[in-house]
Specification:
Layout: H1 19-33, E1 42-45, E2 60-63, H2 69-79, E3 85-90, H3 91-97, H4 99-108, E4 113-118, E5 121-122, E6 128-129, H5 153-160, E7 164-169, H6 173-185, E8 190-195, H7 207-211, E9 214-216, H8 226-233, E10 241-248, H9 275-280
Parallel strand pairs: 1-2, 1-3, 3-4, 4-8, 7-8, 9-10
Antiparallel strand pairs: 5-6, 7-10
């Protein structure tokens, strides 16, 4: 069985107190508890502070272009649909630069797990506002306050077709571990939005801010009821943050519906070499 050192790469360079530390530990612990090893999981990282984890997590891992982690993760999953695939991204990277990819990955129900560090800022480039920043949030690029209203990650992914939508808080590592494990075990598109305080550039959404506003869903919550899930997701607009599995249903994943993958993975299939027959069709 793998241990924490097996999954550990270089020492992290995040700011002391950054919520990324809790998320990093939670991801490693989730993989260990699922009895995975660095050679049995693939991870794709976006650009940003969250993307720096590419150097800190030992696995089959790559850095994608800004906002392009999800399509790379989908490509890996189609090539080897038996491999657990994670996309580890930030809110600016995924909801901003890669918002289009996120929406279509939801509607395709691609069997990948997207773990989002949601801190409201572009931390790596010194704190510009991200799509989840509250209206009026002031930063170097918006000194008078942001004009736009924030994206609601939960309602966006729910209404786009995601079959697993969860939320956690970086200050509660055990709960984050449980959400990541549940997301990986789910067959279909999984998203875990993790509320992650940026101690350097976001002085509003602090640990204290979230501790006063987060709450865990009770055991009787009906996570398979779409209407209830949408209603629950809208509580974010009132600065109430439900933690837990907001929505989960079982539907065929994208790769489950590809007849080409019924017998074996694409990486194990015999490569196509009869190009002469193919070119004759166009000559």
């Amino acid at each position: 069985m793998a241990n924490i050192q097996d999954f550990s790469g270089y020492n992290p360079t995040w700011c002391p107190g950054c919520g990324d530390w809790g998320i990093g530990v939670a991801i490693k612990q989730a993989l260990i508890q699922l009895d995975l090893s660095p050679s049995t999981v693939a991870a794709v990282f976006g650009i940003g502070c969250s993307g720096n984890m590419n150097d800190f997590l030992n696995a089959y891992a790559i850095h994608a272009l800004h906002g392009r982690a999800i399509p790379n993760a989908i490509g890996i999953k189609i090539a080897n649909h038996q491999l657990p695939v994670l996309a580890i991204v930030g809110d600016g990277d995924c909801y901003g630069e890669g918002g289009n990819h996120l929406i279509h990955a939801c509607r395709g129900n691609h069997d990948i797990t997207v773990i989002i560090h949601d801190n409201g800022v572009y931390g790596l480039t010194t704190g510009q506002v991200a799509p989840t920043a509250q209206k009026g949030f002031k930063s170097k690029s918006t000194p008078s306050g942001i004009i736009e209203t924030p994206i609601n990650p939960l309602s966006l992914t729910l209404t786009s077709g995601a079959t697993f939508v969860a939320q956690s808080f970086a200050g509660d590592v055990p709960h984050t571990v449980s959400m990541i494990k549940a997301g990986i075990e789910h067959k279909g598109f999984s998203i875990i939005n993790i509320l992650q305080p940026c101690v350097t550039f976001n002085k509003i959404n602090t640990y204290q801010y979230y501790l006063q506003r987060v709450y865990k869903l009770d055991a009787n919550y009906k996570k398979n009821d779409f209407k209830i899930a949408v209603q629950k997701s809208l509580e974010i607009n009132e600065e109430k943050f439900p933690l837990g599995v907001i929505y989960q249903v079982e539907k065929p994943s994208f790769t489950d519906q590809l007849p080409q993958l019924k017998e074996q993975t694409l990486v194990n299939k015999k490569r196509f070499v009869e190009f002469e027959k193919l070119t004759k069709l166009f000559t």
